[in-house]
Design goal:
The structure holds two protein chains of two kinds. Chain A is of the alpha/beta class. Chain A has a single domain (5-145), classed as NADH:ubiquinone oxidoreductase Nqo5 subunit (Beta Polymerase, domain 2, 2-Layer Sandwich). Chain A is built from three helices and seven strands; from the N terminus they run αββαββββαβ. In chain A, the strands form two sheets. Chain A has a five-stranded mixed sheet with strand order 1-2-5-4-3. A two-stranded parallel sheet of chain A has the order 6-7. The radius of gyration of chain A is 19 Å and the shape is elongated. By secondary structure, chain B is mainly alpha-helical. Chain B has a single domain, classed as Orthogonal Bundle (Cytochrome-c3 Hydrogenase, chain B). Chain B has 17 helices and six strands. In chain B, the strands form two sheets. Chain B has a three-stranded antiparallel sheet. Chain B has a three-stranded antiparallel sheet with strand order 4-5-6. In chain B, helix 3 packs antiparallel against helix 4, helix 4 (104-132) runs antiparallel to helix 5 and helix 4 runs antiparallel to helix 11 (265-291). The longest helix of chain B has 29 residues, at 104-132. Chain B is globular, with a radius of gyration of 23 Å. The chains are: A alpha/beta, B mainly alpha. Chains A and B meet through strand 3 and helix 3 of A and helix 1, helix 8, strand 4, strand 5 and strand 6 of B.
């Protein structure tokens, strides 16, 4: 039996009730959300339940929505069931003031560095992570550059000294 | 036996039994900017910790200010051994997001370019594995065919390494006859070369001794570590994005997915070689299909998407509408639809994914690259633990790590 999006949704709702919500298949991939406290339970259920079998973590990243008060940071998991060839997207939101999320690195080794990267760029604090430190940026950095509060430099700024750039 | 040291340790201190070795970041055997701080016991690796990020260029942040077409040159610089796959992957992501249908001829031309890129990627990786086991000849010998592939790129898009090939909706220009002539030359001559390359290595006693049983991983561990591409297939999992989620009409092609069993360096080498044969067959099939188009169909090289595909230059000078589109595209004044998409392609070293989120603005709200080697490089300490230091070098090159992709 092919694994359908409806079946996955039914299974999740049967297990977690109204704690899983915002189901959508807008781009063909089933996506849903849950409170951040449940993330490990949901991931473990998707992993362990034989009829679901989402045993491959394709991608883990974060998105910053500064206008979404109380859920400014969203951590997105892309999971894949190789046997049935089905992908799903699962996201949890957390407040930027308390960006604590349980780590998935015990379930997926692959999550280790992806969580470090997410911490590095967004400051999501993965509780229980074995080695949560910056990975691509320098250790001395004291901000999280992919957050929207850090805009890129204005390309039209004129306060630069042209002499210094060989344009004088 | 009493040990003699130049340094006298303070009374009561415990002597460290292992040596700390800094391997990289600019060691000739790392083939890229990789640093490993290893603990070695004689020649054996006890543990290692990787340092990455030396060439981080903040692509995801840069992408948040660029209209779609300006992001293509960023993707060039991910896996620069197979830039065209990244470029096409990005165009395909945009087309899926914008719901643009590409003509079949464009799909087949793209397949030709992508498979050429895969061959050049695997060729470099496998011949470097040869170099690291002490056989430089293969590397120098196959280089002339990578050169021929680069000449084909040059005919199609004008550049060689960072190609920026194609546009959203198709190609910037039709393939020239020279491009097809060079492609035919490649299809004629390369099988012989690949065969010779294989006979240099595949049953070579020294090569087998060096690669068999080193750097191995089981299928379960490989999946848990997020392996994709040839490295996962070498461990025995037949996952290939071209089959699982076909794009660019790969479903029209007839090919097999080679798999290994032990996931060691030798299997990775064999899988890559077998994939090159498959790629050759795919190119031949795609080329035959391209040749089968007749009349005006044989001139099609892009889809009809005026919002994203630049009009012809002569039209820009003579037609008002073309001028308007030209201006809007170049200035990036076209709003994207709202939504998000995750779109994967089979890159040279694994599943290259683009996760694009748009809030309806002119640029992506967020763009995340799923970079295969960033994810599977985590397994490196496990792969080399307990092995010889010289095997660690071979394992690193056989994983096909590309620093540009890893550090994004």
């Amino acid at each position: 039996m092919a694994l359908s999006n409806e079946y996955i949704q039914e299974q999740l709702v049967a297990k977690f009730g109204d704690q899983v919500y915002a189901f959508s298949t807008a781009d063909g991939m089933l996506s849903f959300e849950s409170p951040k406290e449940l993330n490990l339970k949901v991931l473990q259920f998707l992993y362990d339940e034989p009829s679901l079998g989402f045993t491959f973590l394709t991608d883990l990243c974060a998105v910053n929505y500064p206008d979404n008060v109380g859920g400014e940071l969203v951590v997105v998991y892309h999971l894949h069931n190789f046997k049935e060839n089905v992908r799903i997207r699962y996201s949890i939101a957390t407040a930027v003031a308390t960006p604590d999320v349980f780590t998935a690195s015990k379930l997926f080794e692959a999550a280790n560095w992806m969580e470090r990267e997410t911490y590095d760029f967004f400051g999501v604090n993965f509780v229980g992570h074995p080695n949560l430190k910056r990975i691509l940026n320098v250790d001395e950095m004291d901000y999280f550059p992919l957050r929207k509060e850090f805009p890129l430099e204005d390309q039209t700024r004129i306060d630069k000294d042209d002499e210094m750039f060989g344009r004088g | 036996m009493e040990a003699h040291h130049n340094i006298t340790l303070p009374e009561g201190s415990i002597e460290k039994q292992t040596t700390t070795l800094n391997f990289g970041p600019t060691h000739p055997a790392t083939h890229g900017v990789f640093q490993n701080i290893m603990e070695v016991d004689g020649e054996r690796v006890v543990s290692t910790e990787q340092t990455v990020g030396y060439i981080h260029r903040a692509f995801e942040k840069l992408a948040e200010r660029r209209p779609l077409y300006q992001i293509t040159p960023i993707t060039d610089r991910l896996n620069y051994c197979s830039s065209p796959i990244n470029n096409m992957g990005w165009h395909i992501t945009c087309e899926r997001f914008l719901k643009v249908e590409t003509p079949k001829r464009v799909d087949y031309l793209r397949i030709i370019i992508m498979e050429l890129a895969r061959i050049s990627d695997h060729l470099i990786c496998n011949s470097i594995v040869g170099v690291d086991t002490g056989a430089y000849t293969g590397f120098l010998y196959v280089m002339q065919y990578r050169e021929l592939i680069y000449e084909i790129y040059e005919e199609v898009c004008g550049s060689r390494l960072t190609t920026n090939i194609g546009r959203i909706g198709g190609f910037e220009r039709n393939f020239t006859n020279t491009a097809f002539t060079k492609l035919e030359k490649f299809l004629n001559e390369y099988p012989k070369v690949l065969k010779e390359f294989e006979s240099l290595f595949t049953r070579n006693r020294i090569f087998m001794e060096r690669t068999q049983g080193t750097g191995g991983i089981s299928a379960e561990r490989a999946m848990n570590y997020g392996f994709t591409g040839p490295n996962l297939r070498a461990a025995g999992v037949d996952y290939d994005v071209r089959v699982a989620n076909p794009y660019s009409s790969y479903q029209d092609m007839d090919f097999t997915v080679p798999v290994g069993s032990t996931g060691d360096n030798y299997d990775r080498f064999l899988v890559r070689n077998a994939e090159m044969w498959q790629s050759l067959s795919i190119i031949q099939q795609a080329y035959n299909k391209v040749l089968s188009f007749k009349g005006t169909d044989a001139e099609v090289y892009h889809a009809d998407v005026p919002e994203y595909y630049l009009p012809k230059k002569e039209d820009v000078y003579t037609k008002m509408e073309a001028l308007i589109w030209h201006f809007k595209i170049i200035m990036g004044e076209i709003d994207l639809p709202k939504g998000q998409i995750y779109s994967p392609v089979e890159g040279g070293n694994g599943e290259l994914g683009f996760y694009l989120i748009s809030d309806g603005g002119r640029t992506p709200f967020r763009l995340h690259f799923r970079r295969p080697c960033f994810i599977y490089y985590q397994a490196y300490p496990e792969l080399i633990k307990g092995g010889m230091l010289s095997d660690a070098v071979v394992t690193m090159s056989s994983l096909n790590l590309i620093a540009g992709e890893l550090d994004a």
